[in-house]
């Protein structure tokens, strides 16, 4: 059976290959390892294989895992945790205290709470505005026409640092459609930059569509299954 180290190596090679095909530098693409539903032990294995950046969807699960991983790791190793699941108002305090990034901002109210709750002693919380580029097919994220107004409002919040945009398009095997969705997000980022916002992050691409995302300019890919294997919940056993 392939180990997590093997899987990470294979994913890094896929990223390098896709970057080369697009005439881009692989070093400019961050690999976010999505560990949701997988036990802390699997994260510890990924850390041992050199991975430092992790994505989680559920706040309570993430916090338990952060504590377990920290207890088992060399304190000199700094990990970066990204929230990539939907965020409700009653969880913002924990998220402001424990995460380094929140990729799922789609309302000003949630962003304002995160800013108010982020301690002055810490670096500002990095955030991305989540965009629904697929229309009706997916429900999370702000509509493309609302991105600029939300981005400008979020950029004004003192304890947040708006870094860019994120999307989860509808799953499809149609590579042309994958590319069209990702291109839309890149164009929205370019428009936001043209309006004066200093943004550097385009979070798009998962295990099944990372090549299309990299071809369209992804600076961060969020990879779960290709690193950690199928999630229990998807196998119908949890
Ligand atoms: C679960 C998840 C991923 C990872 O998906 P895979 O297909 O397992 O690579 C990426 N992004 C988000 C927002 C997710 O919820």
Instruction: Kindly report the name of the CATH homologous superfamily.
Output: Alanine racemase
Secondary structure: number of strands: 8
Number of domains as seen in the coordinates: 1
How many whole angstroms does the radius of gyration measure? 17 Å
Query: What structural class do helix, strand and pairing data support?
Result: alpha/beta
- What molecules are bound to this protein? pyridoxal-5'-phosphate
Mean pLDDT reading = 95
Instruction: Report the CATH C-level class.
Output: Alpha Beta
Shape: globular
Sheet bearing the most strands, described? 8 strands, parallel
Query: What's the CATH topology label?
Result: TIM Barrel
Can you tell me about this structure?
This protein is α/β, with parallel strands linked by helices and 238 residues long. The chain has a single domain, classed as Alanine racemase (TIM Barrel, Alpha-Beta Barrel), CATH 3.20.20. The chain has helices spanning 4-21, 40-48, 59-72, 92-98, 108-117, 147-155, 175-194, 210-215, 225-228, 232-235, and strands at residues 30-34, 53-56, 80-83, 101-105, 125-131, 160-167, 201-203, 220-223. The chain has an eight-stranded parallel sheet. Helix 2 crosses helix 3 (59-72). The longest helix has 20 residues, at 175-194.
């Amino acid at each position: 059976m392939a180990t997590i180290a093997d899987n990470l190596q294979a994913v890094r090679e896929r990223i390098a290959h896709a970057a080369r095909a697009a005439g881009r530098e692989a070093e400019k693409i961050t690999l976010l390892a999505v560990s949701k539903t997988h036990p802390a032990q699997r994260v510890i294995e990924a850390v041992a294989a050199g991975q430092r950046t992790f994505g989680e969807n559920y706040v309570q699960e993430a916090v338990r895992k952060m504590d377990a991983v920290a207890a088992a790791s060399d304190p000199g190793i700094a990990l970066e945790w990204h929230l990539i699941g939907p965020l409700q108002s009653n969880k913002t305090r924990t998220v402001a205290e424990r995460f380094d990034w929140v990729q799922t901002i789609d309302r000003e109210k949630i962003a304002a709470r995160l800013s108010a709750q982020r301690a002055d002693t810490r670096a500002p919380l990095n955030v991305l505005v989540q965009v629904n580029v697929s229309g009706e097919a997916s429900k999370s994220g702000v509509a493309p026409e609302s991105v600029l107004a939300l981005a400008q409002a979020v950029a004004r919040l003192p304890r947040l640092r708006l870094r860019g945009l994120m999307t989860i398009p509808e799953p499809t095997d149609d590579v042309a459609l994958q590319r069209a969705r990702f291109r839309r997000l890149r164009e929205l980022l370019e428009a936001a930059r043209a309006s004066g916002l200093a943004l550097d992050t385009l979070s798009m691409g998962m295990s099944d569509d990372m090549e299309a995302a990299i071809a369209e300019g992804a600076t961060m890919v969020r990879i779960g299954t290709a690193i950690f294997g199928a999630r229990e919940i998807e196998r119908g056993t949890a």
